[in-house]
Amino acid sequence: MKTALAILASVLIYIYAIASGGLLNWVGHTSTAYAGAPPQRNTITVPAGTRVLIRLAETLGSSEQRVGGRFTGRLETNLMSGGDLAAPRGTTVHGKVVSAQAAGRMAGGSELALELTDIIINDTAHPILTNTYQMQGQGQGGRTARNVAGGAGLGSVIGAIAGGGRGAAIGAAAGGGLGTARAAGGGGGEQVNFAQGTLLEFRLQQPAMLPRP
Q1: DSSP code of 205?
Q2: What is the band of 80 on the pLDDT scale with cuts at 50, 70, 90?
Q3: Residue 204: is its pLDDT beyond 50?
Q4: Residues 154, 146 contacting (CB under 8 angstroms)
Q5: How far apart are alpha carbons 127 and 210 in whole angstroms?
């Protein structure tokens, strides 16, 4: 009798050991699989070359601006990364003046160059790097102003300045309410001015890592 009980006990212990080992292996496999699962990404990468179309929130002029001066604008269109929304239309963006030169009376044309520096998401400024949007006006006796940003699109300024340097070039977009980029002559050459509401187009020079909205 004792021998039978001992054998039964050994069998039960053996079954328990096998079951426990299988359970531990299952738990370990489950834990490893969970730990190896990629975490949900909380950021969006907007690739280099993405268009950033903004509308200026203030007026900028070559005769008043200084290098390093800051300006504010707002996205005119949604900023997208593939099918993901990185920042909605109306999001605030900041930029800086990288070049500013007033037109001289005798020689030397005016110039105003801008680039974007950051975008505000969830009340936090996130750095971005864009190309430079640059416009030049002719000096004394010049007849035209030109955009030298080197790209076509809504931000490009088109059309010659008529009337010996007096006039305006309007951003290449349909519809009303557009601001103007103006090169106005006043006896000392053309001064470049971007009116409040002017549409300017930039392109990302490097990928931008932004939080999901």
Answers
A1: S
A2: very high
A3: yes
A4: no
A5: 9
Nearest Cα residue to 178 out of 200, 193, 162, 159: 200
The conformational region for residue 16 under phi > 0 = left, psi -120 to 50 = alpha, else beta, is: alpha
User: Which DSSP helix (H) or strand (E) runs through 33?
Assistant: helix 2-36
Phi and psi angles of residue 23, each rounded to the nearest 5 degrees, phi first: -65, -45
In the block, tokens 């531990």 appear at: 24
- How sure is the predictor about 165, in pLDDT bands with cuts at 50, 70 and 90? very low
Residue 180 to residue 197: CA distance in whole angstroms: 8
**Whether pTM exceeds 0.85:** no
Compute the C-alpha angle 42/44/45, nearest 5°. Answer: 140
d(CA 5, CA 8): 5
**Spatial CB neighbours of 2, under 8 Å, sequence gap ≥ 6:** none
Q: Which amino acid is at 46?
A: V
| Sheet bearing 180-185, strands edge to edge | 60-61, 190-194, 180-185, 168-170
pLDDT, tens only, 128-139: 999 999 998 866
Contact predicate 113/69, CB 8 Å: no
